[in-house]
Design goal:
alpha/beta, five-stranded mixed beta barrel, 27 helices, 26 strands, 18% strand
C-alpha cells in the first residue's frame, strides 16, 4: 500500500477529473487560488481534485466527495478572472482527512487500488473491452471526427481501466453519473457502465438524425408547395382568371388604381413581383405585404374639396375665436389667393375642388408663436373647418428620435412609417391642414435630431418629393397646409425657423378675456356641468375680478378652470336642492373660490425719492415693478440685489456711469461718488430677472436718489439705455403696457422707435393712455423727476431739490 500524500485540495464545481484524462480548468475563488499556489511550490505540482457535492461558492470539507483524483498541474496562465490551468489526472485517491490550512484546504490522500478482473483473458471480458472500443469509435465518428483519429486516441491506452476512464472523460454525462463512474473501483463493472452510457449516446444521436430527416422532408414539401403555387398562377393566367381567388388579388387592384409617380410605381411593381414568389408562411412575405398595404392606404392623389368662400371662412373664424385678427387676416389672404387661382383656371364656383394643374403653387408653412392658452392649437382646427379640409394634429413635445419623423428603414424588425406619413394616412387626403404642435419642445439625442428631420417637410421648395425611410420613394406634401405651434421662438433651430412664416400670438387684455368668457368659456362650462344660463348667471363685474385676482396668464386656460370650479360648486348646491338658481356676483367670489390667489403690483400712491416704476414681460403677461435705490456712506461702490441677470446688471452699471459722467447736468455733487455707495434693489427677490428693458428705470431711480428729487409715481417706463444716454427699443410692448394699465398707471414713457408698436393695442386701451415717446435719458428724466424740464435740449432742474434736506437719503448734501 502506498504512503499517504499531503496535498492541497482543488474543489471542483460540476466537474469530475478522470485518471489519464487532461482537462482545462478555470479557477477564480481565493481558496482555490491559494491551493494552486501551494501546489506549484513543490516539484510534483500535485493536487487532490475532488468534486463538491453541491454547487456552492463556499468551499468546505463537509461539501466534498471522499473519492477524487490525484492530478498534476500542467500549463498555468493568469487571466483577468483568475487562472486557467490544465489538469492531468494521475490516479484515484481517497481523502483520509481534510484540514484547514493557511487560507485553503489540505487533505491526507491515499491512492485507491482498483479491482482487477478475475481472468483478464476471459472471452466475455475481452469481448466487453472490444465492444466498448468499437462503440466509442462510432460515437467519435458521428460527432464528426475521422475514424483513424479516434482509433489513434483510443489505441494509446491498452489497460482496460484506463480505456474506461478515457471514454468516460469525453462523454457528455451529468455530474452525478461521472462521480459514480469515478468511485467504481471494479474495472469490469466500470467498463459495463461506460458501455451503457455510450449506447445511450448512440441512441440520442439516432434520434437527432431522425428529427433532422423529418425537418428536411418538411422543408422539401414546402418547396414543392411553392412550386405548385407558381404553376397554379401560370395556369390561372392562361385561363384569363388573373389571380381571382388569390389573397393578393384585392391588394393588386387597389395598387393598380393608385395614381403613383413613375418612381413609386416602379418600386411597388418590383415589390409585388417579389411577394408573388414568396411563401405566405415566410417572415419576408408579411413584411412586404405590410409595406404594400401602407402604400395602398396613402392618399397619393385624392384631395378634399376646398370651399373657397371668403365670407363663410371669415364667419367660421369669428365664430370660433374672439380677436386674433392678424392670424385671421393671414388665413383669409391665403384663401383669396387660392380663389383667384381657381378663377384663373376657369373654376369660379365656391366649394369646387381646385384643378390639379394649379397645384404648382406651394402651400404656406405657418408658425404660431405665443404664450400658452391663447388659442394657437384650436385656431388650426377652425382653419381646417373654414377651408373644408381634413384636420390632422401630431404633438412633437418630447420627440427625440429622427425616425419618429422620417420613419424606420424596412430592414429593421417592426419598422413603420414616420409620423408625417401616418398623419397623411389618417387624413386620407393629399391636402389636409396638418398641425405640428409644440415644435419648440423637440429634443436631440444620440438617435438623431428630429428638428433636422423636419427641414425637408417644412420647406415648400423640397416637400413635393419628401422621402420617408420606410416608404423609400418620394411623396408629395406640397398641397398640405402645415401649421406649427411654439411657446418660445428662441428654442427653435435657426434653419427650421427660416422655413416658416411666423405669426405672433399676444396675450389677451382683460376686456378680451371677459368677452371670451362670456362667448365661449361660460357656455362650455355650463354644458359640461349640466347647468343652464337661468340656473347660473354671471355678472361681468365678478368675472373681471376673477380675471384680475385669481388668474395670472396671457391666455384663458386658468380662467376656464376657475369658471369650471364655480359651476361645479353651484351644480352641487342645485343637486342637493339648496338653491334653484344662483347669481355669481362680486360678493360671492370669496365664498366659492376662497381668498384671492394673485396679488398684482399696484401703482404707488405718492412720489418717492429713489423709487421708479418700470414694466416687465413674462409668458404669463405683463406687470409693473419698482426699482429702489438708496445711498449710504461708502467708497463709491454699486451694490445690486434682487436676483438680477447679467444683462440687467450691465444696465445698472451703465446707469451708474451715465450719472457720474453727467453729474453736473443732473444736479449731483461729483464728490458724492467718492463718499457714497449706491444700493439698487428690485423687489420679488426670489424671482430671477434679466433683460435690458429695465435700464431707463434703473437710471431714473439712481438719479432720483443721488439728486434728491422724487420720481413720479404715476409714470411707468421701459427702454434700454446706452452710456451716452440713448434709449433703445425693446420687445413685448403690448404686454407691458397692458400690465401697467391693470396696475392703475395711465402714463407711459417708451422708446421713440417703439411708437409704431402701439398699433397692436386695442382702441379702448390707446384711448385710456397718455404716451410719451423719448429718445434719450435727458427727455425721460425731465419727464420722470419732479422739478425737471428741458430747455434748448438740455435737462435743467430747480435751484434746490423739491424735498427737504432731512428727507434726503443718508449722506446726501448739496
Amino acid at each position: 500500500m502506498s504512503e499517504p500524500l499531503h496535498l492541497p485540495v482543488l474543489a471542483l464545481r460540476d466537474t469530475v477529473i478522470f485518471p489519464g484524462v487532461t482537462s482545462p480548468i478555470g479557477a477564480g475563488r481565493p481558496e482555490t487560488l491559494r491551493a494552486i499556489q501551494e501546489a506549484t511550490k513543490g516539484e510534483d505540482h500535485l493536487v487532490f481534485a475532488v468534486a463538491q457535492r453541491e454547487n456552492t461558492e463556499e468551499i468546505s470539507a463537509e461539501n466534498l466527495h471522499a473519492i477524487g483524483t490525484i492530478a498534476r498541474i500542467g500549463q498555468l496562465q493568469r487571466v483577468s478572472s483568475g487562472v486557467q490551468l490544465l489538469l492531468q489526472g494521475e490516479s484515484r485517491g481517497i481523502a483520509l482527512r481534510v484540514n484547514q490550512a493557511d487560507g485553503f484546504l489540505q487533505a491526507v490522500v491515499r491512492e485507491v487500488e482498483e479491482l482487477e478482473p478475475i481472468d483478464p483473458h476471459d472471452a466475455a471480458f475481452v469481448g466487453l473491452v472490444r465492444e466498448l472500443r468499437e462503440r466509442a469509435i462510432e460515437v467519435g465518428q458521428r460527432a464528426g471526427f475521422p475514424r483513424d483519429v479516434v482509433q489513434q486516441v483510443l489505441g494509446g491506452t491498452e489497460k482496460p481501466g484506463r480505456l474506461a476512464d478515457l471514454i468516460a472523460g469525453y462523454l457528455e454525462l451529468p455530474h452525478a453519473d461521472r462521480q459514480i463512474l469515478l468511485e467504481l473501483l471494479s474495472i469490469e463493472e466500470r467498463l459495463r457502465q461506460v458501455l451503457i452510457h455510450v449506447q445511450r449516446q448512440i441512441s440520442v444521436l439516432d434520434a437527432q438524425e431522425d428529427i433532422k430527416t423529418q425537418v428536411q422532408q418538411e422543408l422539401g414539401d414546402r418547396q414543392r408547395e411553392m412550386v405548385l403555387r407558381e404553376q397554379m398562377k401560370a395556369i390561372q393566367n392562361e385561363l384569363g382568371e388573373n389571380g381571382e381567388g388569390d389573397d393578393l388579388g384585392e391588394l393588386r387592384k387597389e395598387i393598380a388604381a393608385l395614381e403613383l409617380p413613375a418612381e413609386a410605381r416602379k418600386e411597388v411593381d418590383r415589390e409585388l413581383s417579389r411577394i408573388e414568389r414568396i411563401s405566405q408562411d415566410s417572415m419576408e412575405y408579411q413584411v412586404l405585404r405590410t409595406y404594400l398595404e401602407t402604400v395602398a392606404e396613402l392618399p397619393w392623389s385624392h384631395r378634399s374639396l376646398e370651399h373657397i368662400d371668403l365670407d363663410r371662412a371669415e364667419r367660421v373664424l369669428d365664430e370660433d375665436h374672439y380677436g386674433l385678427q392678424e392670424v385671421k387676416d393671414r388665413i383669409l389672404e391665403f384663401l383669396a389667393v387660392r380663389q383667384l387661382q381657381a378663377a384663373k383656371q376657369g373654376d369660379t364656383e365656391s366649394g369646387v375642388e381646385v384643378p390639379d394643374h394649379s397645384d404648382k403653387t406651394k402651400g404656406p408653412i405657418l408658425l404660431f408663436v405665443g404664450p400658452p392658452g391663447v388659442g394657437k392649437t384650436s385656431i388650426a382646427k377652425s382653419i381646417a373647418r373654414a377651408m373644408g379640409r381634413e384636420y390632422v394634429r401630431i404633438s412633437l413635445g418630447g420627440t427625440r428620435d429622427e425616425a419618429d419623423i422620417r420613419g424606420h428603414r424596412r430592414t429593421y424588425v417592426g419598422a413603420m412609417p414616420g409620423r408625417i406619413l401616418q398623419g397623411m394616412k389618417q387624413a386620407g387626403t393629399k391636402n389636409p391642414v396638418f398641425l405640428l404642435d409644440e415644435v419648440d419642445k423637440l429634443g436631440a439625442s444620440y438617435q438623431g435630431d428630429p428638428a433636422s428631420g423636419l427641414l425637408e417637410v417644412l420647406d415648400p421648395a423640397q416637400n413635393d418629393s419628401f422621402v420617408d425611410h420606410y416608404l423609400g420613394v418620394p411623396f408629395d406634401l406640397s398641397d398640405v397646409l402645415f401649421i406649427a405651434t411654439a411657446n418660445f421662438i428662441q428654442s427653435i433651430p435657426g434653419p427650421l425657423l427660416d422655413r416658416m412664416e411666423t405669426v405672433e400670438f399676444t396675450g389677451y387684455t382683460e376686456q378680451e378675456k371677459l368677452e371670451i368668457a362670456r362667448r365661449y368659456l361660460i357656455p362650455r362650462q355650463l354644458e359640461e356641468n349640466a347647468l343652464d344660463p337661468e340656473t347660473l348667471r354671471f355678472k361681468d363685474e365678478a368675472i373681471s375680478e376673477v380675471i384680475a385676482r385669481y388668474t395670472r396668464e396671457s391666455g384663458v386656460r386658468q380662467l376656464e378652470r376657475e369658471l369650471g370650479k364655480i359651476a361645479r360648486k353651484v351644480a352641487r348646491r342645485v343637486a342637493s336642492e339648496e338653491v334653484e338658481s344662483f347669481e355669481f356676483a362680486p360678493g360671492k367670489i370669496k365664498e366659492l373660490l376662497g381668498r384671492p390667489k394673485i396679488h398684482p403690483e399696484r401703482a404707488a400712491t405718492a412720489d418717492q425719492t429713489g423709487v421708479a416704476t418700470g414694466m416687465f414681460y413674462t409668458p404669463a403677461g405683463g406687470d409693473i415693478m419698482f426699482v429702489e435705490v438708496t445711498t449710504m456712506t461708502g467708497k463709491g461702490e454699486l451694490v445690486l440685489t434682487g436676483q438680477l441677470g447679467d444683462v440687467m446688471k450691465e444696465s445698472a452699471r451703465a446707469a451708474w456711469s451715465f450719472a457720474r459722467s453727467h453729474a453736473e447736468t443732473l444736479g449731483i455733487d461729483d464728490a458724492l461718488f467718492q463718499t457714497l455707495d449706491a444700493h439698487i434693489h428690485v423687489p420679488a427677490g426670489a424671482i430671477p430677472k434679466d433683460g435690458p428693458s429695465a435700464g431707463v428705470t434703473m437710471a431714473t431711480a439712481l438719479v432720483s436718489a443721488l439728486a434728491g428729487r422724487p420720481a413720479r409715481h404715476d409714470l411707468a417706463m421701459t427702454g434700454e439705455i446706452t452710456l451716452t444716454g440713448r434709449i433703445l427699443p425693446i420687445g413685448g410692448l403690448k404686454e407691458k403696457v397692458l400690465g401697467a394699465l391693470r396696475a392703475g398707471i395711465t402714463e407711459i414713457a417708451l422708446p421713440l422707435e417703439n411708437q409704431a408698436d402701439l398699433e397692436d393695442l386695442p382702441d379702448q386701451v390707446r384711448d385710456a393712455l397718455t404716451i410719451y415717446p423719448v429718445e434719450d435719458l435727458g427727455q425721460l428724466l425731465a419727464l420722470a423727476l419732479r422739478g425737471g424740464s428741458l430747455q434748448d435740449g438740455r435737462l435743467t432742474f430747480q435751484e434746490a431739490p423739491p424735498v427737504e434736506r432731512e428727507q434726503l437719503p443718508s449722506g446726501l448734501s448739496h
